[in-house]
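Please review the protein record below. Let me know how this chain folds according to its tokens.
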Amino acid sequence: MHSMLVHAHSGLRWLVLIFLVLAIVTAWGKWSKQTAYPDGKLPLLGFIFTHVQLLLGFILYFISPKVQFASGVMKDSMLRFYTVEHITLMLLAIALITVGYIKAKKQIPAPQGHRTIVRYYAIGLALILLSIPWPFRGLGAGWF
């Protein structure tokens, strides 16, 4: 079960990244043209996929052998990353994406909503990219 969840969590990361980038690019284009915000499907899909990813991540956090609460965790860079750094940055990123989505929905002049999506989603995306255990970082993770 653990292996299946790890693969699902790793695979879903690509959907999260794709939909966040698409939402940012689309909102940027609409913001720069000062157009209306007729539908928010891409920001909504980015919002949904990040929250599904969060749920999978929470399950993995409590069953993963890479997350430990022993005394030497902070000395081991891999254990520290998964136990502290990864979850902290991801929670912050998802909180920013959530706040950005909710604020954008409430902003009546549409260009302001586009600007909000661009700002919050871009910061969230940057935090996500920083906290993904990419294979080249040597943290025991693969591309999928």
User: Anything to note?
Assistant: Residues 2-33 form the longest helix (32 residues). DSSP finds four helices and no strands in the chain. The mean pLDDT is 87.
